[in-house]
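quick one before i forget lol
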Amino acid sequence: MKVLVIGATGTIGLAVAEALRAEHEVVSAARSSGDARVDIASPESIRGLFRQVGRVDAVVSCTGSAAFKPLDQLSDEDFAFSLSNKLMGQVNVIRSGLEHVADGGSITVTSGVLSQEPAPGTSAISLVNAGLEGFARAAALDAPRGIRINVVSPPWVSETLEAMGRDPAGGLPAAIVAHAYVDAVSGAFNGQVLDARKYA
């Protein structure tokens, strides 16, 4: 299968692309490197990516940013950024992707554990993660031509915690998280949120 991985230069995206390459042709896309460039905050950039890449069998989005601040410090701009990037960015990956994914293919996007287990300072990111999960469940019901839509919900990733100077033992290695994405692409899941912690 030909699989487009968006965010393929990030910690999770690199691991996902590597895991998928074992059995599939992978086209990598990111903001500044990879086989193609894309800014998911721009709907036109997303449309341009799909025009460039053409027909694919699966799309995986491992990207999206949101503000991480206490509620009383979140500005209108922080919410607008979070909504336009991680939420609408991936919503638009699904919307544009439906025109370019082959019959019976799949689109997988990324939320995160904070949708179900919020922590202080995560109001904006918990909002967009939960919104994305709700959208994907509903969008899967409308997807044409047997296309499957799923979400992977990663926990904290060990490599990210280490980069932040925190104990990596509190997270899951990116290579393990990647298994959830491989299952979303290769399995029969549809309208599901796959908890990557179940692959530990």
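fyi The radius of gyration is 16 Å.
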